[in-house]
Amino acid sequence: MIAMLNAPHVIGSYVVTFGAIALYTWRMLARARQSARNVPPEELPWT
Amino acid sequence: MDPTASTPSTTATVRRPTSTRFTRGLGVAVIVGAAWVALFGLVLSPNDALQKTGVRILYIHVPSAWLAYLAFIVTGISSAGYLWKRTRSLVWDRVAGASAEVGVLFMGITLVTGSLWGSITWGTYWTWDSRLTTTAFLFVTYIGYLAVRGLGGTLHQRARRSAILALFAVLEVPLVHFSVKWWRPLHQNESVAEGELEDMMLFTLFSGIVTFTLLYVWLVIHRQRTLALDDSVAEHGLDAALAERRQEALQ
Amino acid sequence: MSLWTITRLVAAKDLRVEARSRVMTNQVLPFAGLVMVTFAFALDTSAGDSLLNQVAPGLVWLATLFSLLVVVQRSFAVESADGALDALRVAGVHPGGVFLGKSLALAVQLAVLEALLLFAAVVLYQTEVRASGIVVLLVTYVAATCGLAFVGTIYGGLAAGARGRETLLPLLLLPVVAPVLIGATRATEAALGTNDATPGEGWPWIGLLLLFAALFGAGGTLAFGSLIDE
To answer: pTM to 2 decimals?
Structure first.
């Protein structure tokens, strides 16, 4: 099943897609964590 | 100002400052959905008669492209929402910025997966058809938009400047699309992607679209809140720094 | 003051600044000529002149775009150096008039530039201007110049006063002017008869150029006030 035709292209595209999204998400959440340390809790009205 | 006010009360808000019960639920759904799409896309769905394994790329390529365009539509609407005086609010601006950023991410993914698909199906990474070229131009245009958002100035300056730019981008995209379409009228092989799909393939594609749309909502909510935090850091940053110094002096 | 008066005054001011500083004649025009010569180096001409002749319309417009970037930078560097744009705004001058005035001055400079580039193409690339295509050629030049001047002013105003505007402007401007490059190149090919095109083939492209100019002209007139308002 995995040993398919054009496997590098197909699997590569899945890796690129989910990898890029994961990397972006990770950086975004890390940034948020850092910012949250520097603001009072009333600046987080959604919590 | 009370120096302790700069440290949030609970540890949960420090570890996950931008999440709520709703986004956590959404996040779990997205992870399950992503695993589902990978399982069906890579393993359970059959090969296409014409495109062979190439069709498996479409299960993530088509949803990414759809999301990228959705993201830019949302950016356009939010920018108009900011510029219209009766609804003027920085929330619109943050949603526009968050959506544009997520859109650029997905447009990049669309271009990469699209050229991988093209190399399998067409034997080339790139052709100059109108859909591809418009997508590439949209990508560059919104990278420029994000650069303008980073120019600095007050929050309302940034909001107004980028909102106008986003509306000009809305004007630009159809012009680019039609000029490229006229320029290269012979490339009709776009329709390869619109061949007959079996039920299993349609189902996989549909679950990809649903998952990616949920992912988009999750990303924009979080990114929007991160931007709000960044903006208030810019406001409170000085207060916080002063409080920290005072604390150090007392020790 | 009426919109037209403001337009005229701002345009006259910009052109006077250019005439006195001579940046246009001493730097921009030589730069444009240099670009045309460099194209000839890049496209090997030893096999004959046919290749250069075939791509001449595109090269002329590409050189125009590169020079547009320089001219727009220049047009707003003059304004933001002394806070002149802010002064105009504080004085309550109609921003739409400022936009149209700066666009007009830019269009005049571009027209001079384009005439020189076309002349350079005739001399360097053996391009021939035929009588039957002269109307199409003129209308193409007017329409494309208006469009370029409008978008140049919009994005120049946006980037004016910002840090790193030298690198930002090409990023913002080049994607937007792609339809002008495509449309003007096709229309010019039709006018010059490149690749056996007939002059009539140019009119749909001129329609695109006019639509482009009209949309960005109207948009710029409306939005320019908010763009430069700091």
So the answer is: 0.85
